[in-house]
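Subject: for your reference before the review

Hello V.,

The reviewers asked for a structural picture of the protein, and I figured it would be easier to keep everything in one thread rather than splitting it across files. Below is the amino acid sequence we used in the manuscript, unchanged from the supplementary table.
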Amino acid sequence: DGRVVGSEAGAADSALSELFGRRVRLATAAPEDFTIDMQVASPDDAPGHGGSLVQQKLGAAYFAQAGAPSPVPATAFFDLFPLSVITTATLAHLQALQPGSLFDSRRFRMNLVVESPAEGFVENAWLGRRVSVGGAALQVTMADPRCVMTTLAQDDLPQDLEVLRAVAAHNSLPFGGGDAKYPCAGVYAVVTTPGDVTIGAPITLDG
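And here is what came back from the structure prediction:
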């Protein structure tokens, strides 16, 4: 409606709650029990549907539930890891498998997009390996499970539920130590050696 409300103003929470039609608040730290509603697709979902809705713990809460050390602070708003990586090979492979959709890197919101001449889901083979990029070194830890966020409209990209269905049909992988498989595209990583990374920096796999 044209109002401008600063985050420091006491009216910010009420203005946002009115806009979204539900009670919301701005916060500078994630809650201790960080949980979101996540829509997950499976290959068996009917066309035009995004899959089932599950409650998923995120950030440090996920690792506390799994009994594992967390790579992110308890108050951080990370989904799981501080870094996500995808290759152009994966995007091109999905595009070939589902030519009616647009597998633009913007849909996947990655920190690093690696140009690769290879074919297929290249980074699936990076799990457990070290990656050097520019002056930094990363440890690739696990596959990156995708949710309905990849299907939403943004800029010139239309809403397209088939994006998630294609990932589910062609690259569902185990995640979190259980038997369940999730649609994955890209990988999660942690920084083991900080350093500068610029566009066009070379990338090498170690180990």
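For the response letter, the relevant points are probably these. Residues 127 and 140 are 5 Å apart (CA to CA). The longest helix spans residues 88-97.

Happy to draft the paragraph if you're swamped.

O.
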